[in-house]
Write a structure and sequence with these properties.
Keywords: Nucleotidyltransferase, Transferase. Pfam families: NTP_transf_3 (PF12804). By secondary structure, the chain is of the alpha/beta class. The protein folds into two domains: 122 residues, Spore Coat Polysaccharide Biosynthesis Protein SpsA, Chain A; 40 residues, no CATH class. The chain is built from four helices and ten strands, in the order βββαββααβαββββ. β8 and β9 form a beta hairpin.
Amino acid sequence: MSDFRLDAAILAAGFGTRMFSPIPKMLSVILGDPLVRYPFEALAEMSAPPEKTFAVMGRDSIVHALPESAVWVQQSQMDGTLGAVEAVLLSPEWRSGNATHLLVVNGDAPLLSGARLDDFLKKSRLSGSSMSIGTSTLEEPGRYGRIIRDRSGVAMIKEYVDLSPEERKIREINAG
């Protein structure tokens, strides 16, 4: 576990369709700051902050809201988290770096803290798994994507629009 070098990716490319607003979700102002700034602050608060923090965007309109330290990459295909992570992993900035791990964080997470991210990484590393995801169980999960499990654990994360009526009864969601 000694060879651990972290970069992070903030998912900021979504359209924010559940917000019903012409303003891009990441530019929505909360307590004086654009929503997209909060995950950057949480990452900076970590005991060992990422070497690089990527902002994965679907449009250029949020660039002005990013910290100067952000490395922004364009997600050309709006195909969810997989496309966002692929945009980071194919970027020259990632490929020329020396990170061994990538922490992926939702851009719409204003309550996230550095301590919570430290705890998540610690548990993930101790588990020995190659990938970890944060989930939550909600009484009313609404239009969030669901965690589909099988006997071995998480089988997939499925977007709401792709869920069968039976799968829509699942209350466990991807918490980012």
